[in-house]
């Protein structure tokens, strides 16, 4: 637990499975114009357990590529780089902050092309936080301050005054 696993295709833990089922109960009766998922099994399993058996897979929702930091904990990374932060520094051999932010914006543009506009996305922590920051057109570094637990409900919407985060990290 606590390891940066961007490209490692892990299964959900039993806690993650339960959280996905709980999320499914919260989403019962809500219709979506599109359901998207990262192709990684922990995201597709979450979608399935939440009641969405056939999400459209997109690499845009994959977790951040941690490069040489793949499999390491933040504490291990901080031993050699004490001030490291994914959204400020990126990862050697992996994605840069600019690449993360560009991919977040690309997903937003992709999802907004869907008629109707009610989109459900199953992805991964660092990428979903980057999407939230990009949604409100904030500096990517703000994403580090967004707590995001497993299988929580988050609502991004077009409000009267522009894009807003209407709900975040609700379980």
Number of distinct helices: 6
Percent helix range: 25-40%
CATH superfamily: Phosphoglycerate mutase-like
CATH class designation: Alpha Beta
How many angstroms separate the termini?
20 Å
Describe the structure.
The chain has about 170 residues and is of the alpha/beta class. It has one domain (about 15-170): Phosphoglycerate mutase-like (Rossmann fold), CATH 3.40.50. About 35% of the residues lie in helices and about 15% in strands. The protein has helices at about 15-25, 40-50, 75-80, 85-90, 95-110, 125-135; strands at about 35, 55, 120, 155-160, 160-170. The strands form 2 sheets. It has a 3-stranded parallel beta sheet. The protein has a two-stranded antiparallel sheet with strand order 4-5. Helix 1 (about 15-25) crosses helix 2 (about 40-50). The longest helix is centred in the middle third of the chain and has 16 residues, at about 95-110. The chain is globular, with a radius of gyration of 16 Å. The two termini are about 20 Å apart. The mean pLDDT is about 95.
